[in-house]
Amino acid sequence: MIDDFIPAQDLWKEALGEGIKNNHPIYDMYYSVLARRNDAILITNDGKLSEVAEIMGVVLCK
């Protein structure tokens, strides 16, 4: 269930920076950055995103 909508303009700079740093699409970085900011668990079956999220310190549910 969706509890909040977060505007992309609040996240884009950080997501772009992480995307460049980790050579990964910014689209996925929005999810990782948002999970990191909110101490949330990221659920994904994308192997590359999982690797990057772990590097970023995001908790994963695989």
Average per-residue pLDDT, rounded, comes to: 92
How far the N terminus sits from the C terminus, by CA atoms, comes to: 19 Å
Count of distinct strands: 2
Total of helices: 3
Largest sheet: 2 strands, parallel
Task: List the uncertain runs.
Answer: none
Instruction: Return the structural class.
Output: mainly alpha
In short:
The protein is mainly α. The chain is 53% helix and 10% strand.
Q: Would you kindly provide a written description of the structure presented here, covering whatever features stand out?
A:
With 62 residues, the protein is mainly alpha-helical. It is globular, with a radius of gyration of 11 Å. The chain contains 3 helices and 2 strands. The chain has one domain. A two-stranded parallel sheet has the order 1-2. Helix 1 crosses helix 2 and helix 2 packs across helix 3.
Strands, helices and their partners?
Elements: H1 12-22, H2 26-37, E1 41-43, H3 47-56, E2 59-61
Descriptors:
single chain, two-stranded parallel ribbon, 62 residues, 3 helices, mainly alpha, 2 strands
